[in-house]
Design goal:
Radius of gyration: 25 Å
Number of strands: 3
Shape: rod-shaped
Structural class: alpha+beta
Order of helices and strands: HHHEEE
Length: 119
């Protein structure tokens, strides 16, 4: 009768280890998704502020507007990828690079426009 009990030894340990591995994989995936979401939000904020800063200085010329937009994008954790001035409108694209997991690097790009209100 004692020999029947020895055949089940370690079964619960394997199940607990498997459940732990599943939790680690799910947690890592969740952290990667959260990092990507934060990068998207950071790129959006950088683009919005860069467009507003560019629109505030557009009267000084397109170069000054794009220079100011670039400074604000960098101050908000992004990089200005594109800047176009059309009259009093400034359209910018900001990007943020994120490494969600080791070996998994992505770039998030968001565009924003700022200018006077049109009726």
């Amino acid at each position: 009768m004692a020999s029947g009990r020895h055949g089940d030894r370690g079964g619960a340990t394997v199940c607990v280890l498997a459940a732990g591995l599943v939790l680690v994989v799910c947690g890592t995936f969740g952290a990667a998704v959260a990092a990507a979401g934060m990068a998207r939000q950071r790129a959006g904020i950088a683009a919005d502020f860069a467009a507003l800063a560019g629109a505030a200085t557009v009267a000084q010329g397109p170069e000054a507007a794009c220079r100011r937009a670039s400074a604000l994008a960098e101050a908000n954790g992004g990089r200005l990828a594109d800047c176009r001035v059309d009259g009093l409108d400034v359209q910018v694209t900001a990007e943020v690079t994120v490494t969600a997991l080791p070996g998994l690097t992505r770039t998030v790009r968001i565009s924003a426009r700022a200018g006077p209100v049109r009726a």
